[in-house]
Design goal:
heterodimer; A: 4 helices; B: alpha/beta; six-stranded mixed sheet; four-stranded antiparallel sheet; 10 helices
Chain lengths: ~100, ~300
């Protein structure tokens, strides 16, 4: 369980936007919270997987992919803003993510 | 001109395709047309006349395989005629035939015949009750194995594309059950592939035996460069091992992730080129540690082909 600070939020946003700008070959100035990852910038699930690995390494997270998958079934991610929000929750709650449902 | 070891990777076949790349790459159109004419002379029918214009989509699995093969062989000829010579070739799934052609082990028209025989040998396996393939991203091999066993499903993992990214073949109805269960168990993504045969699964063994009998007259010769097996990552260098690979490729699981790791170990710093219609292989390469560079055919440019 990590403490989320303003610095973390800024950092996560920057990583997510830089990542998709590079992967999808788009100008990062055009990516915003409302950007639809699949429809607007042609992102895909393998990119999502890669991004999770980046965060796992950076924040030394103990999180199983299937925990994220189960959470995503009830909280689908379609936009950059939703992805950033989910990533913050993953950093904060790690493998306890599903306990937020209870 | 190439400076570092280069690996030609021949993809399987796409489910759909919009605006096939390559038409602007010098020499490609001529190679493609020459091979297309050879295919037509060999008796192939139903090929689209407007291949390089607009959207191309076929529901005909066999026709798609033929077109993918012709395209891949044209890529091979274009690159080799521009002095790009691979240290080895790899055929991903049904891309094996283009890899064998590229390495010089079979002729172009024999490749067409092998594809035709493979399809018709496996087709009876599929008719009743119906077969197919799916990809699942986000679950481990153990997770998937457990679900298959628990639900007693007639489907099998037939390829590890990357860690937590698997392809499965089997009975369509069981794949649908697996897809629903996998989603509930936390799979990030599940996708049905547009195929009707259970490629690379043990269910196809009977069909593979028939394929062996029907292709016994097709000659294989020693290749110009090794072809790597996606099944056990061995290097195939003689005609008989090439022939045997075409048979076991039909009913034995592959491991593309291990294959990339093996190639990278054999040729550190090598460059991979996806020699065919885009199917997303470069994306999987990101999950292999190290300096792995994977290019698409459209990454080549210039009158004298250069790789960015």
């Amino acid at each position: 369980m990590a403490l989320i600070t303003d610095k973390t939020r800024v950092e996560v946003r920057e990583i997510v936007i830089d990542f998709f700008a590079e992967e999808c070959e788009v100008d990062k100035q055009t990516i915003h919270d409302g950007t639809n990852i699949i429809k607007d910038i042609d992102g895909d699930s393998l990119m999502f997987l890669e991004l999770i690995e980046i965060f796992k390494k950076k924040y030394n997270l103990d999180i199983e992919l299937k925990v994220i998958g189960k959470y995503a079934v009830k909280h689908p991610v379609t936009t950059i803003g939703q992805l950033i929000d989910m990533q913050m929750l993953i950093i904060e709650h790690e493998n306890h993510l599903l306990e937020l449902e209870r | 001109m190439q400076e570092t070891p280069i690996i030609f990777v021949f993809p399987a076949f796409p489910n759909e395709l919009t605006d096939p790349p390559g038409k602007n790459i010098p020499g490609f159109g001529d190679h493609f047309q020459t091979l297309l004419d050879m295919a037509l002379k060999s008796g192939l029918t139903g090929l689209p006349h407007n291949f390089f214009t607009g959207t191309f989509l076929t529901q005909d699995e066999l026709l798609t395989q033929f077109i993918s093969y012709i395209y891949s062989c044209a890529v091979s000829e274009t690159l080799r005629s521009n002095n790009f010579t691979p240290v080895l070739s790899a055929g991903y799934s049904m891309g094996i035939y283009a890899a064998l052609f590229d390495a010089g082990s079979i002729t172009f028209t024999d490749g067409i015949e092998l594809i035709r025989c493979a399809y018709h040998s496996l087709a009876p396996v599929s008719r009743d009750p119906g077969s197919g393939m799916i990809t699942v991203i986000g679950l481990s091999r153990d997770d998937l194995g457990y679900l298959i066993k628990q639900k007693k499903l007639r489907c099998r993992i037939i390829n590890e594309n990357a860690p937590f990214s698997f392809s499965l073949s089997g009975r369509s109805s069981d794949l649908r059950i697996l897809a629903d269960t996998a989603r509930n168990e936390g799979a990030l993504h599940v996708r049905f592939l547009g195929v009707c045969l259970p490629y690379h699964a043990a269910f196809a063994e009977t069909g593979a035996r028939k394929f062996l009998e029907e292709t016994a007259g097709i000659p294989f010769v020693r290749p110009a460069n090794p072809v790597i097996s996606l099944i056990d990552q061995s290097l195939l260098t003689d005609p008989e091992s090439m022939r045997a690979e075409t048979v076991r490729n039909l009913f034995t699981p592959l491991n593309w992730h291990h294959t990339m790791l093996k190639i990278h170990k054999l040729h550190p710093g090598c460059r991979f080129v996806e020699c065919g219609l885009p199917t997303g292989l470069p994306k999987n390469a990101k999950f292999v540690a190290g300096d792995l560079r994977f290019y698409s055919f459209q990454d080549f440019s210039g009158n004298e082909l250069m790789l960015f």
